[in-house]
Design brief:
alpha/beta; 143 residues; 31% helix
């Protein structure tokens, strides 16, 4: 199973940015653990600050041979209709992840336009939420 973990704006700073909210672990450190925990999975990490780039990657998933998507669009989750539209057109299963608990933060973060277009949303479990999303995708795919 080939899975893309796609992160949006400012998520390149995980491990440094607001460690009280996002923790100190980097995605590369976590990916080392995920590769060990999910040996049958090919896990690729991508990040962009640009909405259009995220949309192009989502639209190209099937052509690149991916079986599923884990998306953390960051602040775009709450504002991007066009990103939600790209997810609605996606034929592969997608799971949204938020490192922090969006429901325990500012009111504008309580609604996720992109999460509404995914099979499910994992929120508030730190970077470990991505491992929960990997488990979900494995089960959805029956692998």
């Amino acid at each position: 199973m080939k899975v893309l973990i796609l992160n949006g704006p400012n998520l390149n700073l995980i491990g440094q940015r607001e460690p009280d909210i996002y923790g100190t672990r980097t995605f590369e450190e976590a990916k080392t653990d995920w590769n060990r925990e999910f040996p049958g999975m090919q896990i690729e990490l991508r990040q962009s600050q640009h909405e259009g780039v995220l949309i192009e990657w989502i639209q190209g998933l099937a052509a690149e041979g991916f079986d599923g998507l884990i998306l953390n669009a960051g602040g775009l989750s709450h504002t991007s209709v066009v990103l939600a539209d790209a997810l609605a057109a996606l034929s592969l299963p997608a799971v949204e992840v938020h490192i922090s608990n969006i429901h325990a933060r500012e009111p504008f973060r309580h609604t996720s336009l992109t999460g509404a277009r995914c099979r499910g949303v994992v929120t508030g479990f730190g970077i470990e939420g991505y491992a929960l999303a990997l488990i979900a995708l494995q089960r959805i795919a029956g692998r």
